[in-house]
Amino acid sequence: MLKKERHNFILSYLELNGTVMASALCVSLSASHDTIRRDLRELSEDGKLMKVHGGAVLIRSETQQLPSTVASIIAAKTAPLLCSDSFILTCGGEAVMEMYRFIPSYFNATLLTASIHTAARYCEHPTMEVVQLGDRIVKTSKIAAGGEATAKIRQIRADMCILDSTGIDPLRGLTESNWQIAQVKKAMAESSAITICLAASSTIGKIAAMQVCAPQNLAYLITELDPRDTILDAYRARGIIVL
Fold first, then answer.
1. Are 20 and 94 members of one domain?
2. CATH number where 9 lies
3. Which keywords fit this entry according to its UniProt record (predicted)?
4. Strand partners, 121
5. Are strands 19-21 and 55-58 parallel, antiparallel or unpaired?
6. Which end of the chain has the least Cβ crowding within 10 Å, N or C?
7. Are residue 136 and residue 22 in the same domain, yes or no?
8. Do 74 and 52 share a structural domain?
9. 145-156, pLDDT tens digit by residue?
10. Of residues 20 and 203, which shows the higher confidence score?
11. Long-range CB contacts for residues 8-17, cutoff 8 Å, separation at least 24
12. Which three-class secondary structure state does DSSP give residue 239?
C-alpha cells in the first residue's frame, strides 16, 4: 500500500473512531511498526492528528489545532492507554472528564467512579458500563468518600486506576490534601493492577498532607509538558513512565 493510501486510511479511521492504536494499524495495513510510527509522525507534523504514546487521537477542533488546555492535552495522552473490556477506577477530575472526547464510541469497558460528575458524563457513552460508588458526598468535589465507598473499592480488582493530582513528588509520590478523598484514592490504587497519575505541571513537586500512592507503585505520570522536560527526570529515575 502506498504512503498516501495509508495516510488516508489512518485519517478516515480517526474520523470515525476518534483514536487508534499503532499496533492495530500494523495489523490493518499489514505494515511494520517503523512504517506506522513514521506515518503517525508525519501526519502529526502536518497538524492532522495528535501523536500520543502507543497511537494517535483525532484533532476535533474546528480549526484543526492541537488540544490547547492542560486538561485536554493530558486527556489526549491518556485515552490510548485504556483497554477494551477492562475495569477502570477513578475519582474523576477535569482531565478524566475531558478524556471522554477521545474515547471511541465502540469502546467497551466498565468505569467505576466515586465522582458524581464523572458518572453523569460517561453515562452518555453508548457502550461503556458506568458504576457510581456511593457514600457520603464531599460537597466541594462531588465525590463519594467514606468507609462504605472505601470498603466497596477494596472488593474490586481493577485493571487500572486513573487519579488526578493535588501534589506529586518523586520521593513522596501522589498526595492529597483531603483526608476522606485520600482514603478513596488510596483504596483505588491498592485495588488496581496499575496506577496512572494525571498531573498538571502546577502540581509537580508539590506535597499534600496525605500520601495516596508511593512513587514505586505509580506506572504512569501524564502531564501537559513535553515528556523530555528536565523537571520530569526525577520521576523517570523512579521507574515511572512519563508521557
1. no
2. 1.10.10.10
3. DNA-binding, Repressor, Transcription, Transcription regulation
4. none
5. antiparallel
6. N
7. no
8. no
9. 888 889 989 999
10. 203
11. 10/39, 10/40, 10/43, 10/49, 10/56, 11/43, 11/48, 11/49, 14/49, 14/56, 14/57, 14/58, 15/58, 17/104, 17/105, 17/106
12. coil
Quick one: pLDDT band at residue 68, thresholds 50, 70, 90?
Answer: low
Angle between helices 147-154 and 179-190 (to 10 degrees): 10
Q: Write down the residue that cell numbers 488496581 correspond to.
A: 192
Question: Hey, what's the cell of 3?
Answer: 504512503
AA letter at 171? L
The alpha carbon of residue 97 and the mean position of all alpha carbons in its chain are separated, in whole angstroms, by 10
CB 96 within 8 A of CB 198: yes
Domain containing residue 89: CATH number: 3.40.50.1360
Is pLDDT larger for residue 14 or for residue 111?
111
| Contact present, 64 and 88 (Cβ < 8 Å) | no
Look up residue 209 and give its three cell numbers: 498532607
Burial class (CB in 10 A: 0-12, 13-18, 19+), 219: middle
Judgement on whether residues 52 and 102 belong to the same structural domain of the protein: no
Q: What does the block give as the cell for 194?
A: 496499575
Q: At what angle do helices 22-29 and 33-45 cross, to 10 degrees?
A: 110
pLDDT at 16 over 90: no
**46: DSSP letter:** T
Q: Do the Cβ atoms of 94 and 71 come closer than 8 Å?
A: yes
CA–CA–CA angle 41, 47, 48 (5° rounding):
85
Please give the backbone phi and psi of residue 77, each rounded to the nearest 5 degrees, phi first.
Answer: -75, -30
What's the one-letter identity of residue 33?
Answer: H
Looking at the structure of the chain, the number of domains it has is 2
Q: Residue 103, exposed/middle/buried by CB under 10 A (0-12, 13-18, 19+)?
A: buried
Scanning 161-212, the segments in alpha helix (DSSP H) are 179-190
Q: What is the mean pLDDT of residues 185-192?
A: 96
